[in-house]
C-alpha cells in the first residue's frame, strides 16, 4: 500500500511544471511571438529622449520657427490671394514644419525600434495577428479581466500615476515663488519660463518611467519564464517527438539487426573457409582471384552468431578451421565487406592454401 502511494505521489510530482523550458520550447514560443517584453519600456524611452531632444535642439527649433513666422509676415501677407500663392505658402510652411519636427520624429522612431530590439532582438512573426476565436470568447475575456495579471497591471498604472503626481507636485512646489511672479513678467519671459519647467518635468517623468519600465521588464521576464516552465512529463514527451519513442526506435534497430544478420548468413555459403576460435568467434573468408585483390570477410560473429555461421557452413559443405589468434584478430580488425589487411596476408594465405589442397584445387 505504501509503495502504491509513493508511486502515485511521484506521478503527481512529475506533472508539476518545475523544470526550465527546453531550447525547443523557447524557439516555438518565440515563433508564436511569446517573448518577454515590456510595452512601457519603448514608450518611456520615447518620452525621455523626445524631451531631451527638445532640450538639446531648442535653439535650432526656435531659429526655424522664428524664420517661418518672419517669412509668413514679410513675404506672404502682402501677396494677392490666389491659388498659386496659397500653394507656395502651403509648401513653404510644410517644408519648414518638417525641418522643425523631423528630428523629433526620427529620434522617436529610432528609439522605438531600439527599445524593442534590446528586449527581444530581431523578430518577424505573424502568428499574433492571426484570427483566433479564443480572442473573442467572452469567457476568456472575463478571465483575463479578473486575472492576477490584470490586477498587477492596474497596480502598476496606479503606481506610475502616483509617482508622476509626486514628481510634478515637488517640481511645481519648488517653483511656486517664480510661478507667483509670472503675472508681472512680459509674455516672452512667461513662455520661456513655462517651456523650461515643462522640459524639466518631461525629462524627470521620462527618467522615472524608464526606471519603472525596467522593473516591469524584469517582472515580464519572470512571468514569461514561469509560463514556459515544463513538467518532467512534458520534457519526456518533447524528447519522444523530436528523437522518436525509445521503444519504437529499439524495435526498429532490432529489426535492422535481424535483417543484417539474415543478409550476412545468406553470404556464408559463398565463403571458402570459416576460421573459428573454436566456440566464441567465427569469421567467414571468401577469395575470388578474378574479382578480388585480396581475401574478404563476408561474415563474422561471436557466441550465438558464431554458432549460426558454423552451422550454415556445415550445412553447405564449407570447411571450418580452428585458429584462435587469427580468428580474434580478423574479428577485431576487419569489418564485413573489407579486405584482409597486408599484415594478415601470410596467415590467411596459409589457411586458404590448406583449404584448396583439401578441395583438390
Gross morphology: elongated
Task: Note the gap between the termini.
Answer: 75 Å
> Taking all residues together, what is the mean pLDDT?
79
Taken as a percent bin, the fraction of beta residues is 5-15%
Main beta sheet, described? 4 strands, mixed
Structural class: alpha+beta
Q: Total strand count, please? A: 6
* Helix-residue proportion: 55-70%
Put simply, the count of helices is: 14
GO cellular component, one term: plasma membrane
Membrane topology: Multi-pass membrane protein
Organism: Paenibacillus solanacearum
Subcellular location: Cell membrane
Overview of this protein structure:
- It is a single chain.
- The chain has helices at 2-14, 23-31, 40-56, 58-76, 83-120, 138-145, 148-174, 176-180, 187-228, 232-243, 246-267, 303-315, 324-333, 345-359; strands at 17-19, 230-231, 273-276, 281-286, 296-302, 319-322.
- It is α+β, with helices and mostly antiparallel strands and 361 residues long.
- The strands form two sheets. The chain has a four-stranded mixed β-sheet, sandwiched between helices. A two-stranded antiparallel ribbon has the order 1-2.
- Strand 3 and strand 4 (281-286) form a beta hairpin.
- The model is unreliable at 8-13 (pLDDT under 50).
- One of its GO terms (cellular component) is plasma membrane.
Amino acid at each position: 500500500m505504501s509503495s502504491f502511494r509513493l508511486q502515485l505521489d511521484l506521478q503527481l510530482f512529475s506533472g508539476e511544471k518545475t523544470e526550465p523550458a527546453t531550447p525547443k520550447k523557447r524557439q516555438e514560443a518565440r515563433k508564436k511571438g511569446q517573448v518577454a517584453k515590456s510595452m512601457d519600456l519603448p514608450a518611456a524611452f520615447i518620452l525621455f529622449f523626445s524631451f531631451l531632444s527638445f532640450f538639446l535642439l531648442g535653439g535650432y527649433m526656435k531659429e526655424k520657427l522664428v524664420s517661418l513666422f518672419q517669412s509668413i509676415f514679410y513675404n506672404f501677407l502682402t501677396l494677392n490671394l490666389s491659388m498659386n500663392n496659397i500653394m507656395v505658402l502651403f509648401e513653404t510652411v510644410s517644408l519648414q514644419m518638417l525641418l522643425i519636427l523631423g528630428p523629433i520624429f526620427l529620434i522617436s522612431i529610432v528609439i522605438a525600434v531600439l527599445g524593442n530590439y534590446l528586449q527581444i532582438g530581431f523578430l518577424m512573426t505573424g502568428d499574433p495577428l492571426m484570427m483566433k476565436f479564443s480572442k473573442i470568447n467572452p469567457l476568456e475575456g472575463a478571465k483575463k479581466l479578473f486575472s492576477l495579471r490584470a490586477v498587477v497591471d492596474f497596480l502598476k498604472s496606479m503606481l506610475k500615476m502616483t509617482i508622476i503626481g509626486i514628481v510634478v507636485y515637488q517640481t511645481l512646489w519648488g517653483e511656486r515663488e517664480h510661478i507667483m511672479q509670472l503675472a508681472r513678467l512680459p509674455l516672452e519671459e512667461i513662455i520661456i519660463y513655462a517651456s523650461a519647467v515643462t522640459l524639466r518635468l518631461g525629462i524627470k517623468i521620462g527618467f522615472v518611467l524608464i526606471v519603472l519600465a525596467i522593473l516591469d521588464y524584469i517582472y515580464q521576464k519572470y512571468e514569461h519564464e514561469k509560463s514556459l516552465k515544463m513538467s518532467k512529463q512534458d520534457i519526456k514527451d518533447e524528447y519522444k517527438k523530436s528523437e522518436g519513442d525509445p521503444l519504437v526506435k529499439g524495435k526498429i534497430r532490432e529489426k535492422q539487426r535481424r535483417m543484417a544478420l539474415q543478409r550476412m548468413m545468406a553470404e556464408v555459403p559463398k565463403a571458402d573457409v570459416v576460421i573459428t576460435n573454436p566456440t566464441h568467434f567465427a569469421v567467414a573468408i571468401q577469395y575470388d582471384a578474378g574479382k578480388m585483390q585480396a581475401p574478404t570477410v563476408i561474415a563474422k560473429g561471436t557466441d550465438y552468431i558464431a554458432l549460426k555461421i558454423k552451422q550454415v557452413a556445415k550445412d553447405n559443405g564449407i570447411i571450418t578451421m580452428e585458429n584462435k589468434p587469427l580468428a580474434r584478430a580478423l574479428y577485431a580488425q576487419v569489418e564485413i565487406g573489407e579486405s584482409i589487411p597486408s599484415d594478415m596476408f601470410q596467415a590467411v594465405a596459409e589457411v586458404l592454401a590448406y583449404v584448396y589442397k583439401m578441395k583438390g584445387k
